[in-house]
Design a protein that fits this description.
Shape: globular
Helix content: 25-40%
Radius of gyration: 16 Å
Number of helices: 7
Number of strands: 8
Order of helices and strands: HHEHEHHEEEEHEHE
Oligomer: single chain
Distance between the termini: 26 Å
Strand order of the largest sheet: 2-3-7-1-8
Largest sheet: 5 strands, parallel
Length: 203
């Protein structure tokens, strides 16, 4: 069953990142035993994780290492957790993934898995009608990434993040802020709408 789930999820993520909406829709319909939902609220996502996990099942938040504008959500990728504590300590330890305070990046979770994950999406990798656009945050603004190697790495970073959960996953695409030009609605809305088109259940 795990192999079957993993294969279907991997295929789904592949189609999502390759902008094959119709195929992604069809595969999503087959993920009956793998909850995969969408929200704009980090608080809702945290509650969802806690409600889904049973017994010793581990859950945690994962984000891109370039997700620099999640700081208003109390997510700072520059504050790296001790990954041993994050993966192994129990729910009573503030350093563990269970506390949903520290986040792991693609570097931390490469080759590793949790039972349930929350993927928090930032403006570094955005869907547009013309395809994915790539950005890095430098100084006080986002800049376009034109280097093909970096663009490829960035896409693969999200591939890693989207394939770390054994049991199920929730994707958070924040709403942005009208008062913060680095978190303009446009940086997030189109990505959220893309996942809605694919058919992800919203909570």
């Amino acid at each position: 069953m795990r192999s079957f789930r993993a294969e279907n999820l991997s295929n789904f993520v592949h189609k999502v990142l390759d902008l094959d909406i119709e195929s992604a829709k069809e595969i999503y319909k087959t993920l009956n035993n793998y909850p995969l939902v969408l929200t704009r609220s980090l608080d809702k996502a945290k509650r969802w994780l806690k409600e889904k996990a049973r017994g010793t099942e581990r859950y945690g938040m994962v984000v891109s290492s370039r997700a620099y504008r999640l700081k208003p959500l109390a997510i700072d990728v520059r504050c790296q957790p001790n990954i041993v504590n994050w993966f192994l300590d129990d729910e009573t330890d503030v350093r563990s993934s269970f506390y949903l305070e520290d986040v792991a990046t693609e570097f931390d979770v490469q080759g590793l898995e949790l039972d349930w994950t929350c993927v928090v999406w930032d403006g570094d990798f955005r869907y547009t009608p013309k395809g994915w656009t790539h950005h890095s945050f430098s100084g006080n603004k986002w800049k376009n990434v034109n280097n093909e190697n970096i663009r490829s790495y960035q896409k693969n970073a999200y591939r890693v993040l989207l394939t770390r959960a054994r049991q199920g996953m929730i994707i958070v695409v924040p709403e942005g802020s009208p008062e913060d030009p680095t978190r303009n609605y446009a940086f997030y809305d189109s990505t959220y709408e893309y996942f809605r088109k694919i058919g992800l259940e919203e909570i």
